[in-house]
Amino acid sequence: MARSKTIIGLAVGVSLVLLSSLSILLYFLLHQDADMVEEEEWICSSVYQRDRCLKVIYETSNWKNAEQYCLDEQQQDAYLLSIANLKEQKFVKDLLRRKSASSEKCNNFWLGAEWNSTAQQFQWIDGQPFSSFMYRTHHISNKTTSNHGSDELESRRLAFNTKSFHWVVQNQDQPNCFVCLWNSRESVKNASDCQDLKKAGKSRNGLYKINLIDQEKVESHKIVCDMENSGGGWTVFQQRLDGKLVFWNKTWEEFKNGFGEKSLHSEFWLGNELLHRLSTNHPSVNLKVQLWGDRNPYSNKYTNDYLESDYTDFRVGDESTSYTFNAATQWPNNGNASGGWFDITCASGAKFSTVDRINDPLKTCVHDFHLGGWWLHYCTFAALNGEYDPPIGWADGYGMMWLANGIYIINPRKTRLMFRKNT
């Protein structure tokens, strides 16, 4: 009987512990910050205006290099952290209290405040107003507290101390951890291509993130944007520089998903699936082809020339059509790379071919002429994904080639393909 009571008592005790644990778990689930979400290391909260996002960096750096890191992270849309009010201050304090526990070297985090000698006060580099109450709240002194580098007033910067949670004045050469603040998430979160980003105020070439809606789900993709050429807003989907990355013998899946490092300084292919989605996302899309030089050692006609041509009605079908190509020319006003007919527009209606899925009736175009990874129909007048060095002969329609002005085949040194909505 006594044993039964003991067992019953233990069961009741375990039940109470489980209920207590469940209650604690439910409490944290119900009371967690519903306004905060982590996106690819960026922590976003409605505490900051326009849902701006923060990223904590646990590597130490001087102030200048830390600021450059933030700029590079989001193509000049991110800065070192600014704090405009006590609400933001509390959010940052709680965030760093949790985060800094994992890193002993992060006693101070750089803030995006620099000394303004004219105004004789600190100012936020992202343009936010610097409230005077921050001086009183954090007891900021006018004495530089670091022995690193110059003691000149212009070298003063602010840092957030994780021990006292006060701001401290330090020399800009002091190595500290830091926090980046992404300022323009709201203005670009619905951008679906480089032109949308351009209209949102983006002006720097480089890698950007876009969002596409697929069956009521938002998918994020990274694309390369040319924001300078012909007004900017161009989405780059192909670039070749030196032939180090082989294109022509990549598989169907590789061309479908894309390959290479997405950068204006690298060779890459965006991917046929994304190319289809972006080129059909608007009723009218323009294509731009850029070509640099001719590597043919037996000719000097186009050796150092730059050629470009523009085309209208550009689009790429979905995979069920084998990513069928379409483009039209506006000759004679479409540029100096085209003769108006015998160019890339001859591929209109052609299906994409790769070494493992040849849709060209003449299979030697891929196998022997190394024109794979392109829209082929009894070969082509342009194959910018062909083998960099032609397998048979120069200026004869093999490998990476283009028919310039409708009469002369060149083997370009460098190529770039990009598109933009016609609005």
Could you name the key traits of this structure?
single chain; 423 residues; alpha+beta; Mannose-Binding Protein A, Chain A; Gamma Fibrinogen, Chain A, domain 1; 2 domains; 9-stranded antiparallel β-sheet; membrane; Fibrinogen C-terminal domain-containing protein
Overall number of domains: 2
> How many DSSP helices?
9
Helix content: 10-25%
Number of extended strands: 23
Domain C-type lectin: 49-181
Organism: Ditylenchus dipsaci
Protein name: Fibrinogen C-terminal domain-containing protein
Keywords: Disulfide bond, Membrane, Transmembrane, Transmembrane helix
Question: Can you summarize this structure?
Answer:
With 423 residues, the chain is an alpha+beta fold. The protein has 9 helices and 23 strands.
Describe the structure.
With 423 residues, the protein is α+β, with helices and mostly antiparallel strands. It has two domains: 36-182, Mannose-Binding Protein A, subunit A (Mannose-Binding Protein A, Chain A, Roll), CATH 3.10.100.10; 190-421, Alpha-Beta Complex (Gamma Fibrinogen, Chain A, domain 1), CATH 3.90.215.10. It has nine helices and 23 strands. The strands form four sheets. Strands 1, 2, 3, 4, 5, 6, 7, 8 and 9 form a nine-stranded mixed sheet that branches. Strands 10, 11, 12, 13, 14, 15, 16, 17 and 23 form a nine-stranded antiparallel sheet that branches. β10 (206-214) and β11 (217-226) form a beta hairpin. The longest helix has 30 residues, at 2-31. It is elongated and about 75 Å long.
